[in-house]
Design brief:
By secondary structure, this protein is mostly helical. The chain has one domain. Helix 1 runs antiparallel to helix 2. The longest helix has 26 residues.
Length: 64
């Protein structure tokens, strides 16, 4: 299990903010799929991937 106790309050806040954004994007992606807007759903999927990558970068900085 990764340790995140080295994260600053700002980094923890940013991760929480990003996680909230990811949840919102998943909801938007589901709505796009329900509306048969596959291209939009794929685009949102890429946004989710980028947000997750940002979280991992922040965690990597904290472990240095």
């Amino acid at each position: 299990m990764e340790r995140h106790d080295r994260l600053t309050p700002e980094e923890r806040a940013r991760i929480t903010e990003i996680q909230d954004m990811i949840i919102e994007r998943y909801v938007e992606q589901k709505e796009a799929l329900d509306d048969r807007k596959r291209a939009l759903a794929i685009e949102i999927g890429f946004e989710i991937k980028e947000l997750r990558r940002e979280v991992e970068i922040i965690k990597e900085w904290a472990s240095v």
